[in-house]
């Protein structure tokens, strides 16, 4: 399926005259078992696409909340192969919800691009966001992905001009992830008025849906981003639910809390007409 699942998710959201809800969780936080339960809770409460974070020791784009989540997952012994196994478990019962692996290049490079792409496709992963692998460096992975129908999802930022947007779009598929703030995840609040023109430009240049993330934590912020974007990405707010569960020692509270937040966001997005 690969990119077809992603395209279907955006088509469904467009048919319902709303922006897509893209949710993120860190695999292995607070545990792999609870991560699986959380994925189901996100799906059941309106997530259109799930980004599955692969923990890494040096997460340069991630703010404190996701950094801590990654460290907790690593302390649990979570490896890239565990993340793929988690995706495969979810995919056994869900052939519809797109799964995007979000992480960094080093673990994938260590596994080997060919081995990783085959394992990801077999696990039901539909594409990946490799934060530190820019267009100039991803040709090898992109070629292998194309054989398996997997999407290379790229990042654009408020500093991306039209020439750079064309480079970002070249070989990309699925959607473009627009980083709404000049900073790391969870830092500050995004200003939709400040980025609306750039989002429109990236959409025009790429011909792909544009999802806005970083700095979006609640329904009110999601509503404002939905007015300018095809999808809204929320990550740190979900990861903080896992942190709460970890701190309380009640891991079983993470998934219901994430599901509740997903439901709040989905209901908020349903009220924003894209017409």
TrEMBL record:
MF GO annotations: tryptophan synthase activity
Enzyme Commission designation: 4.2.1.20
UniProt GO cellular component terms: cytosol
Catalytic activity: (1S,2R)-1-C-(indol-3-yl)glycerol 3-phosphate + L-serine = D-glyceraldehyde 3-phosphate + L-tryptophan + H2O
SUPFAM superfamilies the record matches: Ribulose-phoshate binding barrel (SSF51366)
Cross-referenced InterPro entries: Aldolase_TIM (IPR013785), RibuloseP-bd_barrel (IPR011060), Trp_synthase_alpha_AS (IPR018204), Trp_synthase_suA (IPR002028)
Domain of life: Bacteria
CDD domains named in the record: Tryptophan_synthase_alpha
Enzyme class: lyase
The protein's role, per its UniProt record: The alpha subunit is responsible for the aldol cleavage of indoleglycerol phosphate to indole and glyceraldehyde 3-phosphate.
Record's subunit section: Tetramer of two alpha and two beta chains.
Family note: Belongs to the TrpA family.
Protein name: Tryptophan synthase alpha chain
Species the sequence originates in: Hyphomonas hirschiana VP5
Gene (name only): trpA
